[in-house]
Amino acid sequence: MDTLLRYVVEPLLPPARPLNMVRVLRITTTRQCWMQCAFCDFSQYAPLVGHHTASPAISPDHIQQAVSAASYDLIKVRGGLTVWEPWSYFVQLVRHISSQSRAPIQAFSAVELMHFHRVEKIPLRDMLDELRWAGATSLGPGGGELLVDEWRETVAAHRLRSAEWLSIQQLAMESGLQSRAMLLVFHGITPELIQSHLHALQAIRDLSVIEIKPLRTASSPMAYWDPPHLLELLAVVQAIRTQWPHVDIVMNRTLLSEDALTLLHHHGVNHVYITAKEIG
Ligand code: SF4
Question: What is the widest separation between alpha-carbon atoms in the chain?
């Protein structure tokens, strides 16, 4: 009877929550990163300071033009890891963005924080407090793709371990930043991997957003990997909704057909990111 309800009756009913379209300004600080994660478009070596050919990080003028061009529901700041600009530059960057816009700012991720923590020896808690002071409202979910260490060692050997990622999320919440997690869905993901990841996420108190990210392989070293099947995405959405009835489940609009979006919305996706503008 449960199965009948889930697959036959439920899709005919109106979705439990309305679908919220989130207009996003994406600011990418650099498209190079030394960390070489196999699933990432940015995974190319960044030249060293003194011999670099990398273009400089995004300028304040770029930001001003982008922010004033339209209104946004969310500003996302992200980028690869280099050693060109110091942490203080990025804090000022976020401060500058927040002085130009009232939109919530999702700035950097646990991976970037750990990078600067190691390079500049700044305590993580201080960095999170600085981000909050600068105007960030949440930390990005980057680094939390799949919280299974064996998998991480295979495709992202330099990444922080699952426990480190989780503890930085917890610290971020203590600094007043909203908690955001993600799940990278790839073809062949198993129910065991999904459940291990969701089990790890139980450690985050007051988890409010889970972003589902279908693996996009076009220009990453994992380009040979097939994209996930719609049924794999559906299984992930159902598993999340079963465990977290109230968490927001977010996907990127550009990756979904209209039919796929309708189906996933019925099963629990309730926010969709639309890239309104992208710089960097
Ligand atoms: S750390 Fe982030 S930006 Fe760098 S290669 Fe990995 S996923 Fe890409």
Answer: 67
Whether the per-residue pLDDT at 223 is higher than 80: the answer is no
Atom of ligand 1 nearest to the CA of 156: 6
- Give all strands (DSSP E) within 29-88, no chain letters: 74-78
The pLDDT tens digits of the residues spanning 17-57 come to 889 999 999 999 888 788 888 888 877 665 555 555 455 56
Both tokens of 255, joined, read: 């990756």
Q: Give 146-164 pLDDT, tens digit per residue.
A: 999 998 988 888 889 999 9
Burial of residue 50 (CB within 10 Å: 0-12, 13-18, 19+) is: exposed
Q: Which stretches of 105-199 are assigned E, i.e. beta strand?
A: 105-109, 138-140, 180-185
Residues 6+ apart with CB under 8 A from 231: none
Q: Which domains does the chain have, with CATH numbers?
A: 19-279 (3.20.20.70)
- Cα 159 to Cα 114: distance, rounded to the nearest angstrom: 9
| 183 CA → ligand 1 middle, Å | 15
Asked if residues 197 and 148 have their Cβ atoms less than 8 Å apart, the reply is yes
